Amino acid sequence: MHSPALRVDHLCKNYSLSGWRNRKKVIAAIDDISFQLFPGQTLSVVGESGSGKSSLARQLVGIEQPTSGKIFINEKNLSEESKKEQAILFRQIRMVFQNPFSSLNPHSRIGRTLEEPLKINTSLSSKERKDIVNQTLQQVGLRPEHTNRFPHMFSGGQQQRIAIARALILEPKVIVADEPLSALDVSVQAQILNLLMALQENLGVSYVFISHDLGVVEHISDQVLVMYRGQVMEYGDIEQIFDAPKHPYTRKLLSSTPTYRHTVKVSKVTPSAEFKQRAKSANGCVFASRCPYAQQKCLDEQPEQHNFDGQKVKCHWPLIE
Ligand SMILES: Nc1ncnc2c1ncn2[C@@H]1O[C@H](COP(=O)(O)OP(=O)(O)OP(=O)(O)O)[C@@H](O)[C@H]1O
Ligand code: SF4
Ligand SMILES: [Mg+2]
Q1: Which of 48, 109, 114, 248 lies 20 to 30 Å from 102, alpha-carbon distance?
Q2: Pairing relation of β-strands 174-178 and 76-77?
Q3: Residue 124 DSSP one-character state
Q4: CA 25 to CA 7: how far, in whole Å?
Q5: How far is 114 from 103, CA to CA, in rounded Å?
């Protein structure tokens, strides 16, 4: 087996907010996340709004500095490398954002936008750079003559193709795509998804794919990471988890999607108002205030991660029936 293209160990990211009367409040947006991603594979990250998916993406591509934990690219620990070596490693992991138009410079012709990373990171000649730009445009289904146009002259789908081309231009090993389809017309979403899959097939690139669309996630992923309030609730092989989710939160998430509503068994019990109130100030399981199976131990103790043949479940009582 190859070594992982990307490995993350106990990654944490806290944000400090100035609160009432200048009291500092700390939000643990990412709380002890670990996973590994192998070449040519896709790891999807799911979880409701505010669970920390985009915060994770920003740490992975170096937009932000993690509070603690380690990121390994090609088994090199980023935090132990010099700034120069880090910059070289970050060429291997690039990002595609949700909104293609706001991710592109509106005043720059796309040829220039695509050439820029090559100018900064390589010593290629102008002719060599232009050749790579043209090849990459063709890879994403656009034509070399498009280089002279500005972003607003393209449709949303074409803009996302340009953003994908920019992510690909330095031949990365990993692309982190943060909801890359959700700002696009439904009719265009399938085309961009097919493009991403074809690029993976041809180039062997790995994806960290962030999405709310569980149907798409099941279709394209090798692994899935289910997040809630910054923590990993369940992580492992996509088939294992979608066939037999063992965390109460994963079940809740799947059962709120029409495709899975009838196949996932989930208790309809909700914790009492009094229990919810106690859960707010407790230091146990982060899901306790919403969990149908929560008990006193869930308020008192953080659950350990249980491992079922690689399916990792952070719960005192994983659902194994
Ligand atoms: N720069 C920041 N400063 C302070 N808090 C932040 C910052 N970025 C994110 N947060 C907080 O961190 C938590 C996780 O946010 P994040 O945007 O990562 O969630 P998400 O899973 O991407 O949500 P969505 O599905 O809506 O995109 C939220 O509580 C958010 O308010
Ligand atoms: S630890 Fe308790 S509250 Fe948390 S998911 Fe498991 S049963 Fe629910
Ligand atoms: Mg987000």
Answers
A1: 48
A2: unpaired
A3: -
A4: 30
A5: 13
Q: Which atom of ligand 1 is nearest to the CA of 56?
A: 18
Residue found by looking up tokens 């979880």 in the block: 47
Please state the φ and ψ torsions of residue 111, each to the nearest 5 degrees: -60, -40
Measure 52 CA to ligand 1 centroid, in angstroms. 5
What is the rounded CA–CA span in Å between residue 61 and residue 48? Answer: 22
Fill in the amino acid letter for 218: E
**Which positions ≥6 away from 140 have C-beta within 8 Å?**
161, 162, 164, 165, 168, 195, 199
Bridge partner list, 305: 314
* One-letter identity of residue 146: H
Compute φ and ψ for 210, nearest 5 degrees: -100, 130
117: helix, coil or strand?
A: helix
Q: Which pLDDT tens digit goes with each residue over 133-168?
A: 999 999 999 999 999 999 999 999 999 999 999 999
Distance CA 268, CA 189 (A): 34
Q: Which of 26, 45, 53 to mutate to test the pocket of ligand 1 (most atoms within 8 A of CB)?
A: 53
Contacts of 149 (CB under 8 A, 6+ apart): 109, 110
> Is the CB–ligand 1 distance for residue 211 below 6 Å?
no
Residue with tokens 């192998």: 38
Looking at residue 274, its pLDDT comes to: 95
Domains of the chain: 6-228 (3.40.50.300), 245-314 (no CATH)
User: Of the ranges 101-105, 176-180, 198-202, which one carries the lowest mean pLDDT score?
Assistant: 101-105
